[in-house]
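Support request from a user on the community tier.

User writes: "When I paste my C-alpha cells into the form, the page sometimes reloads and wipes my input. The last time it worked, I copied everything first. Here is what I submitted, just in case something in the input itself triggers the reload:"
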C-alpha cells in the first residue's frame, strides 16, 4: 500500500518541481516580451544549465530512506525535436531489486513434468519462468551470469536441473530448481557445438569441433566424467530415452554420411552407421525417433529419414525459404518443424520475416506454414502441452504455437513495455512508465 501511495507523490513532485516555461513553436519568432519567470527554485531553459532536482529514495518497504536522495541531472539545452533528459528508475525508488526482468530473449527450455518454460535473455541476469498451463509469467530464477551473454538453457525434468551454458564466456552452470542451489561455473572449451541431456543418469553431453570432440558432464557436480574422440567432426547429439541410446552425427566423414552410436557409460563407439548423404550440404540436425526406430538427419536443403542400419526410409527437399534458424522433431505427429528468417537480399525488409513450415516426415508434404515475428529463433517443443515456444530476438516476446493446428503464433509479452503515458507542460514533456521501472523523456 505504501508503494502505491509513494508513486503518485513522486510523479507530482516531478511535475511540480521540473516544469520550465513553454517554448515557442519551431519556426515562429520569439515573443518580444520576456517569458514569465519560473517558479521559485527552478531555472528556465537557457544556455546556462539549470540546477539539479533532488528526490527522496525509498526503502524496500516503500517508505523514504532517511538522508538518502536521488539527484536528477539539469535540464539540457538543445533544439532537437526530441531532447532526452534522463531516466527515472521508479523500481529503485520503490525499493525493488534492479535487473528483475529479462531482455532480448534468446533461449528457452521446457519442463513437461511441472509445466514450466524457462526463458533467458542476452542482456539480463534473471531467467523468466512461464506457467505453461496457464500461459502466465510466474517469476524468475537466477542464471548466475552478469552482463551481456549468450545463455543456452537445457533442462532435466527428472532431476529438476536447469543447465545454463554461457557461450560468451565459455562456462557451465547448473541450477537445482528444487533447492535453488547453484553449481559452477566450470570452464568449457571455447567452442561448444551441441548439447544433450541424459535424464537417466543426470548427465550432460557436449560436442566440440576441437579434440576431444565429445565429453560427458556429471549434472550434480559438473565434473567431467570422461572425454572421447569418435571423429573429427562430432556434431549434433540425439539421446533416445526409451532405448537408452546415444547418437552423434559426424560432420566431416571421409565419404557419404556417418552417425556414431555411443555407449553412454563410457563414450565408446559401439557402431558406426553409414548412410547415403546428399552430395551438397553439411549435415546439421539429428533426431532419434524411438517409437519407430528411425533417425532423422537434415542439411539446410534436404531431410532424410533413416532406419537404424542407415537405410533411407524417405527423403524430401527443404525449400529455399531464407536463412534456416532451427529444426525440431515432433514425434507425436511425425512431423519436422523448420524455422526460417527472411533475408533482405530476397526482397524482404531487413530484420523482418519469421516463417515456420511443418512437414510430414513420411511424405515430405508441407502441412502448415505460418509467418510471424521479426527475428524468431530456437524452437522449443513442450511434449506435455503440445506447444512450440520461440523467443523473439528483437522484442521481449515469447511466441507460443499450438502444434495441433498451427493456426497462429500467440505472443507472450515479457520485459519492457510502455504501460502508461502522461503528457505534461502542454505536451512539452512526456512521462512514460514501463514494467522495467519506468522512465522520463521530455520532448521540447
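"...and here is what came back when it finally went through:"
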Amino acid at each position: 500500500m505504501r508503494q502505491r501511495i509513494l508513486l503518485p507523490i513522486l510523479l507530482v513532485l516531478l511535475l511540480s518541481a521540473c516544469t520550465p516555461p513553454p517554448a515557442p513553436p519551431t519556426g515562429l519568432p520569439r515573443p518580444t516580451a520576456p517569458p514569465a519567470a519560473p517558479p521559485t527554485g527552478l531555472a528556465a531553459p537557457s544556455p546556462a544549465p539549470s540546477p539539479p532536482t533532488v528526490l527522496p529514495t525509498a526503502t524496500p518497504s516503500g517508505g523514504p530512506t532517511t538522508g538518502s536522495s536521488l539527484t536528477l541531472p539539469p535540464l539540457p539545452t538543445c533544439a532537437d525535436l526530441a531532447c532526452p533528459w534522463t531516466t527515472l528508475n521508479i523500481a529503485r525508488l520503490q525499493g525493488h531489486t534492479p535487473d528483475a526482468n529479462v531482455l532480448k530473449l534468446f533461449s528457452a527450455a521446457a519442463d513437461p513434468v511441472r509445466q514450466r518454460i524457462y526463458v533467458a535473455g542476452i542482456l539480463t541476469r534473471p531467467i523468466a519462468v512461464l506457467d505453461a498451463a496457464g500461459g502466465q509469467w510466474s517469476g524468475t530464477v537466477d542464471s548466475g551470469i552478469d552482463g551481456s551473454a549468450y545463455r543456452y538453457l537445457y533442462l532435466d525434468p527428472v532431476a529438476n536441473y536447469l543447465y545454463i551454458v554461457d557461450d560468451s564466456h565459455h562456462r557451465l552452470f547448473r541450477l537445482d530448481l528444487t533447492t535453488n542451489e547453484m553449481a559452477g561455473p566450470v570452464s568449457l572449451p571455447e567452442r561448444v557445438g551441441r548439447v544433450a541431456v541424459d535424464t537417466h543418469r543426470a548427465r550432460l553431453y557436449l560436442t566440440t569441433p576441437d579434440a576431444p570432440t565429445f565429453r560427458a558432464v556429471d549434472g550434480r557436480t559438473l565434473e567431467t566424467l570422461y572425454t572421447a574422440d569418435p571423429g573429427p567432426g562430432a556434431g549434433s547429439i540425439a539421446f533416445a530415452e526409451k532405448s537408452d541410446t546415444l547418437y552423434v552425427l559426424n560432420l566431416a566423414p571421409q565419404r557419404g554420411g556417418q552417425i556414431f552410436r555411443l555407449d553412454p557409460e563410457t563414450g565408446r563407439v559401439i557402431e558406426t552407421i553409414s548412410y547415403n548423404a546428399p552430395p551438397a550440404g553439411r549435415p546439421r540436425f539429428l533426431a532419434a525417433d524411438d517409437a519407430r526406430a528411425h533417425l532423422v538427419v537434415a542439411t539446410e536443403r534436404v531431410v532424410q529419414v533413416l532406419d537404424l542400419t542407415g537405410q533411407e526410409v524417405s527423403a524430401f527437399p527443404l525449400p529455399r525459404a531464407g536463412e534456416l534458424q532451427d529444426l525440431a522433431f515432433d514425434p507425436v505427429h511425425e512431423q519436422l518443424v523448420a524455422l526460417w528468417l527472411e533475408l533482405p537480399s530476397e526482397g524482404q525488409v531487413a530484420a523482418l520475416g519469421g516463417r515456420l513450415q511443418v512437414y510430414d516426415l513420411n511424405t515430405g508434404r508441407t502441412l502448415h506454414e505460418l509467418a510471424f515475428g521479426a527475428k524468431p529463433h530456437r524452437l522449443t517443443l513442450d511434449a506435455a502441452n503440445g506447444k512450440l515456444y520461440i523467443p523473439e530476438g528483437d522484442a521481449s516476446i515469447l511466441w507460443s504455437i499450438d502444434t495441433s493446428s498451427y493456426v497462429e503464433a500467440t505472443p507472450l509479452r515479457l520485459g519492457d513495455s510502455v504501460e502508461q503515458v502522461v503528457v505534461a507542460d502542454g505536451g512539452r514533456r512526456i512521462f512514460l512508465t514501463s514494467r522495467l521501472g519506468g522512465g522520463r523523456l521530455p520532448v521540447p
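Agent notes: The reload is a front-end session timeout and is unrelated to the input. Confidence is low (pLDDT under 50) at residues 1-73, 79-85, 96-100, 433-444. The two ends are 35 Å apart (CA to CA). Escalated to web team.
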